[in-house]
Design brief:
Elements lengths: L1 H27 L3 H58 L5 H30 L5 E4 H19 L2 E5 L7 E4 L1 H18 L5 E9 L2 E7 L17 H12 L3 E7 L2 E9 L4
Parallel strand pairs: 2-4
Antiparallel strand pairs: 1-3, 4-5, 5-7, 6-7
Helix pairs in contact: 1-2, 2-3, 2-6, 3-5, 3-6, 4-5, 5-6
Length: 266
């Protein structure tokens, strides 16, 4: 990376120096060849700057993902360890509740490892696009989240999903998992009694899924463009690996998650 940065600096300096010299020469002696050379050097310099920025963005995204993974693994492990030690020491007055904590922690670990498996799979090989309907993927996500919503007293609604029936080409497993994670996140963070609505649109070559929850709003509007919750970081990694991204905005008494993914159709 240091070599790339040095090369970038060298090309920028060379481009600037040559551009200055050629600028003086072409003012006195207009020569198409010199103008062409200046344009090529400028284009090469801009390309290197964009490549370096892309690498910086990738490094930042990798750090965020590693931090999120560490948190996502540490939390259920701590829950499992605390419950197991309480049962082992015989201090658990309600063993059934501690057993539920063990099962819940194991289920969360299973979800995280499943997400990581899908993320590793699509980073190691090209995305496996298959024809499907966006409405079917969202029906699956809603069906998975519905029991949790009922248990929490959250009203879960799919709005206008019947219109998302145009065929799309996506990695079905990855897209379904990412959408399920997104809906589950909204349900878990919504105040009991409040709604979670899911809408979807297939527009041209892009899929747009909007999830609005009743979490009470963002803590910091300055972070509205970046998913700050660690659980969302893995979901964002799945969507980014598919060529998309997630944005978060604040709405009345909640948050709006906008996930955009290429539809794979022209």
């Amino acid at each position: 990376m240091a070599r790339v940065s040095k090369a970038l600096a060298a090309v920028c300096l060379a481009s600037g120096a040559v551009g200055w010299a050629l600028g003086r020469w072409t003012r006195r002696y207009p020569q198409p060849e010199l103008r062409w050379l200046r344009q090529e050097l400028t284009a090469a310099s801009n390309a290197l700057i964009e490549a370096e920025q892309g690498r910086a963005d990738l490094r930042r995204a990798q750090r965020e993902l590693i931090t999120a993974i560490s948190h996502e693994l540490r939390t259920p492990l701590a829950t499992i360890r605390a419950a197991a030690e309480a049962l082992q020491d015989g201090v658990a007055q309600e063993p059934e509740r501690y057993l539920e904590s063990l099962v819940g922690g194991a289920q969360r670990l299973n979800r995280v490892t499943g997400d990581l498996f899908e993320l590793a799979r699509i980073q190691a090989a090209p995305v496996e696009r298959m024809p499907t309907r966006l409405a079917d993927l969202l029906d699956s996500a809603l069906a998975t989240a519905l029991p949790v919503a009922l248990d929490r007293g959250v009203r879960l609604h799919g709005v206008g999903l019947d219109s998302a029936t145009d065929p799309v080409l996506v990695d079905i497993a990855v897209t379904t998992r990412a959408l399920t994670n997104l809906v589950m996140h909204a349900v878990r963070h919504t105040v009991p009694g409040e709604p979670v609505t899911v809408t979807a649109v297939v527009s041209g070559d892009e899929i747009e899924v909007i999830v609005v929850d009743g979490c009470g709003g963002l803590m910091d509007l300055g972070d509205s463009a970046e998913p700050g919750d660690t659980g969302l970081a893995i979901t964002r990694g799945l969507i980014r690996a598919h060529g998309g991204d997630i944005r978060i905005d604040q709405v009345t008494d909640g948050c709006r998650f906008i996930a955009r993914v290429p539809a794979g159709i022209s």
